[in-house]
């Protein structure tokens, strides 16, 4: 038993030692990288780089070893003994049959998800049955998986060294949110890597080195598969290793504050890359001043004061352009953000498939925007734009960050003006951190968790269908309209989202087609039903409606920020208040709510970067961004600010066939660049 225990610890110990050695070599190599601009470390910093760095590597190695530990402690003959063997097989077969023959969560979401779940369960059930009924194959099975798992671990450790070196070579830091961003834009990132490095020789060398190192570490374990079936060692390893993991988590909490000295390179060198990756994923942010081009703070402040007519930053008094009637109840406000509703789906913008008759009709009834651009390509970016009215920030949206309560929002402003503020969402608002954000910023939330069974006629993985959500909103607003307070209702639709399922018999595209066009058409149909129901209410004539999209249906393009993938519709409708017209100037998504507030004559102290298009000195400009590329449109230039203080510009050269055509320019327009920096630096 003692020998078995020692050899089991030897498996984990070898991988931990390899991690420590890889971390040491990597730190030495990074010290002499051209991105490491300074080696002027104090004696204490030299100690922390190597000593504390080794402790960080050790802790991360212990955490990473959990899957291998779990595999080892569950590799036992006990799980095949009666009755547990039969119970386990029955559960696996039942799960497989459920996915194959019933309407499971996988089949509801997409065909790919169902195929993946079916393949995995078929593998688990089939392989377990073989081992249950043919005991002699168990040692060979264990030997195969031991080889695969240890090879994967060795390969991952070595691959991480190469990845961290290449990342440092470009950005001069360990993994940050840019690395997290790479997981989102895998197609673009892989293409960039293939074009920038001799990727195939690197991969071949990595694979050979992985097999060689794995052989050196574990060749004494070639015929040791019976070792895992030995009795006695589990009570030591199974108990002690989790305690070591808990201690590792505690140590990481102690060493993290040491990475806050004034010397950035000392902080980065002592850190562990995987720890930084997790931290970046959790915090969802990227420091603008560290990674993007900047201007002197006074220049930024002076520019913003000139643009907004303020004395400091953007804080100023905004006067409504339509005087409110002194004795009349203020206008109610309904803001509808449509999921993934690209402008390209509308007949107004040239689509010939008649997908959006409701939106196209509304475009003739109110203030319609022809050149409106979304700030991003995720729902939270659109919600951030219309709620906070500020340029997009690098990293993740503020909505998904921690400590995102007590923000200055449109809802908070209207609540202070006496409005009842409600956020309607057809799904569960825990998704994308919406519950924390809206609930923590003065909104009452009505989501799927508040619906009764009778109120739900159709639902999928994302929540209730748009019709149910709109009906719930109408019922709620009917009640609110009986009070003396005006209401502000923000409604977020969900149906135009994969799996694109909706109630049968509503539109010409079958409900089970699972097509994007069906999702678009049904979303538009449900919007039409809502507007028809609203017109029958007592509050309709005293309500202003803003209908827009959160973002486009896709974001991929030939350039970093393809403008056609950010072009969204928006229309403001209020019978008797808003005259129908087309706004042909470039407008940002962050300008929509300030424009609406101006139309109803609301005066307020504005902390918002968004501006009303009705202001005499309104300047055409828009903000478009990915998680790390920050775009600014002004005049005929699109300026893109990227990490490592990179700058690119494109000239907009629209044609009748391609209204979003643009071409890269070599000569940077310094004025447009200064304005882009001022907006983004000032808002971050």
Keywords:
about 675 residues, alpha/beta, Alkaline Phosphatase, subunit A, 2 domains, 9-stranded mixed beta sheet, 23 helices, 18 strands, globular
**Multimerization state:** single chain
Helix content: 40-55%
CATH level-two architecture of the largest domain: 3-Layer(aba) Sandwich
**CATH top level assignment of the largest domain:** Alpha Beta
| Low-pLDDT segments, ≥5 res | none
CATH topology group of the largest domain:
Alkaline Phosphatase, subunit A
**Total beta strand runs:** 18
Average pLDDT reading: 89
Can you characterise this structure?
There is one protein chain. The chain folds into two domains: 2-283, no CATH class; 297-617, Alkaline Phosphatase, subunit A (3-Layer(aba) Sandwich). The strands form four sheets. Strands 2, 3, 4, 5, 8, 9, 10, 11 and 12 form a nine-stranded mixed beta sheet that branches. Strands 14-15-16-17-18 form a five-stranded antiparallel beta sheet, covered by helices on one side. A two-stranded antiparallel sheet has the order 1-13. Helix content is 47%, strand content 13%. It starts with a helix and ends with a helix. The protein contains 23 helices and 18 strands. Helix 4 (84-101) runs antiparallel to helix 6 (111-133). The model has no long low-confidence stretch (mean pLDDT 89). By secondary structure, it is an alpha/beta fold.
Give a brief rundown of this model:
This protein is an alpha/beta fold and about 675 residues long. It has two domains: about 1-285, no CATH class; about 295-615, Alkaline Phosphatase, subunit A. It is built from 23 helices and 18 strands.
């Amino acid at each position: 038993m003692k020998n078995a225990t020692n050899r089991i610890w030897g498996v984990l110990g070898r991988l931990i030692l390899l991690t420590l050695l890889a971390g040491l070599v990597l730190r030495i190599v990074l010290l002499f990288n051209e991105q490491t601009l300074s080696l002027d470390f104090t004696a204490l910093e030299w100690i922390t780089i190597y000593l504390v760095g080794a402790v960080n590597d050790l802790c991360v190695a212990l955490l990473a070893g959990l899957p291998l530990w779990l595999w080892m402690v569950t590799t036992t003959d006990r799980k095949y003994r009666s009755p547990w063997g039969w119970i386990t097989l029955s559960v696996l077969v039942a799960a497989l049959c459920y996915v194959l023959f019933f309407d499971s969560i996988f089949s509801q979401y997409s065909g790919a998800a169902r195929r993946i779940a079916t393949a995995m369960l078929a593998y688990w059930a089939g392989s377990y049955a073989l081992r249950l009924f043919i005991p002699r194959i168990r040692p060979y099975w264990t030997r195969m998986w031991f080889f695969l798992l240890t090879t994967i671990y060795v390969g991952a450790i070595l691959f991480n060294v190469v990845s961290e070196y290449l990342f440092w070579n470009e950005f001069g830091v360990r993994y940050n949110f840019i690395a997290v961003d790479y997981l989102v834009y895998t197609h673009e990132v892989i293409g960039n890597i293939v074009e920038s490095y001799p990727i195939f020789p690197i991969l071949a060398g990595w694979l050979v080195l992985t097999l060689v190192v794995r052989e050196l570490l574990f060749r004494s374990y070639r015929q040791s598969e019976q070792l895992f079936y030995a009795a006695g060692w589990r009570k030591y390893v199974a108990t002690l290793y989790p305690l070591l993991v808990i201690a590792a988590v505690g140590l990481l909490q102690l060493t993290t504050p040491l990475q806050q000295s004034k010397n950035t390179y000392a902080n980065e060198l002592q850190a562990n890359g995987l720890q930084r990756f997790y931290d970046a994923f959790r915090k969802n942010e990227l420091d603008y001043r560290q990674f993007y081009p900047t201007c002197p703070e006074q220049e930024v402040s002076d520019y913003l004061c000139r643009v907004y007519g303020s004395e400091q930053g953007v804080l100023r008094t905004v006067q409504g352009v339509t005087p409110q009637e002194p004795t009349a109840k203020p206008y109610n406000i309904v803001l509808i953000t449509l999921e993934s509703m690209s402008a390209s789906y509308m007949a107004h913008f040239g689509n010939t498939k008649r997908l959006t008759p409701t939106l196209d009709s509304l475009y003739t009834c109110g203030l319609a925007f022809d050149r409106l651009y979304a700030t991003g390509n995720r729902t939270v970016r659109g919600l951030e734009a219309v709620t906070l009215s500020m340029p997009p920030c690098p990293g993740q949206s503020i909505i998904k960050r921690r400590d995102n309560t007590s923000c200055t929002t449109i809802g908070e402003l209207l609540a202070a003006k006496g409005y009842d503020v409600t956020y309607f969402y057809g799904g569960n608002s825990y998704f994308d951190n919406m519950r924390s954000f809206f609930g923590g910023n003065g909104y009452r939330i009505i989501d799927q968790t508040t619906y009764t069974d009778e109120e739900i006629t159709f639902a999928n993985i994302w929540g209730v269908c748009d019709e149910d959500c709109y009906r719930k909103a109408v019922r709620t607003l009917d009640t609110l309209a009986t009070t003396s307070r005006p209401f502000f209702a923000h409604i977020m639709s969900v149906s135009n989202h994969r799996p694109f399922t909706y109630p049968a018999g509503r539109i010409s595209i079958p409900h089970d087609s699972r097509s994007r066009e069906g999702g678009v058409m049904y979303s538009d149909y449900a919007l039409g039903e809502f507007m028809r129901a609203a017109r029958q209410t007592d509050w309709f004539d005293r309500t202003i409606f803003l209908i827009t999209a959160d973002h486009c249906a896709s974001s991929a393009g030939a350039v970093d920020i393809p403008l056609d993938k950010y072009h969204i519709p928006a229309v403001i409708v209020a019978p008797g208040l808003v005259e129908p017209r087309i706004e042909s100037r470039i407008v940002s998504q962050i300008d929509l709510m300030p424009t609406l507030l101006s139309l109803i004559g609301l005066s307020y102290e504005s902390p918002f970067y968004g501006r009303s298009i009705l202001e005499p000195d309104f300047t055409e400009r828009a903000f478009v961004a990915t998680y790390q590329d920050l775009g600014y449109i002004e005049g005929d230039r699109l300026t893109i600010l990227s990490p490592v203080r990179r700058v690119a510009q494109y000239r907009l050269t629209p044609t009748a066939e391609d209204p979003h055509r643009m071409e890269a320019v070599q000569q940077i327009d310094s004025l447009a660049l200064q304005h882009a920096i001022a907006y983004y630096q000032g808002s971050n």
